[in-house]
Amino acid sequence: MSEQQKGILYAAGSYVIWGVLPLYWKFIDDINPYEILAHRIIWSLVFMILLVIFLRKTNELIVQTKRLFSEPKQAISLFVAALVITVNWGLFIWAVSEGHIMQASLGYYINPLMSILLGLFFMKERFTKVEWTAIALAAAGVFFMTISLGVFPYISVMLATSFAIYGLLKKNVRIDAIYTILLECLFTLPFALIGLVYLKSMDMSNYGMNQDSFLLLFSGALTAIPLILFTAGARRIPLSLIGFLQYIGPTLMLIQSVFLFHEKFTTTHLVTFGLIWTGLILYSVSKIMAYRKHRFL
Question: pTM for the whole thing?
Answer without folding.
Answer: 0.83
